[in-house]
Design a protein that fits this description.
The chain is α+β, with helices and mostly antiparallel strands. It has helices at residues 39-49, 78-97, 102-107; strands at residues 14-16, 19-22, 33-37, 56-60, 63-69, 112-122, 125-135. The radius of gyration is 18 Å and the shape is globular. It starts with 13 loop residues before the first strand and ends with a strand.
Length: 139
């Protein structure tokens, strides 16, 4: 039986609090994958936009993804989807800049993905729809 002296020697994903660091077995020199979930920021974004439930707010390697579920957004017209995506990205940037956490402040200027996920039943079959847009970062 092999014993591990240091945490990073263990095979498989390494989890540390709210940060998940996954190291590639093929390339030990590769940068770790960092995933941060910010539920409190998501609640504030939802309040600013006036939506319920709050979106999932994930910052992964500096890229922010806001996923809105059960809004019906994947069935809206393209103009409505784009208008909401731009509003959501703007609201997220304002919330991130007011936050004291470094990860959020640094993610405010970068590109953001806004996604809608909806599920329904069509002729007895579960159907899921996803629409996503990448809003460019601010320079």
């Amino acid at each position: 039986m092999r014993r591990f002296r240091e945490r990073d020697e263990r095979p498989g994903p390494q989890v540390d609090g709210t940060t998940a660091r996954l190291r590639s077995r093929a390339s030990p020199m590769a940068n770790p994958l960092e995933v941060f979930r910010f539920r409190s920021a998501a609640r504030t974004i939802a309040q600013v936009l006036g939506v319920d439930p709050a979106p999932d707010c994930v910052v992964k390697n500096g890229r922010t993804t806001l996923t809105f579920r059960r809004l019906g957004g994947s069935r809206w017209t393209e103009e409505e989807q784009m208008a909401f995506a731009l509003r959501a990205a703007d609201a997220a940037r304002r919330v991130f800049l007011d936050d004291e956490r470094r990860q959020l402040r640094s993610a405010a200027a970068k590109a953001m993905e806004v996604a809608f996920e909806d599920a329904s039943v069509v002729q007895g079959c579960a159907v899921s729809a996803r629409w996503e847009c990448t809003v460019p970062g601010q320079r």
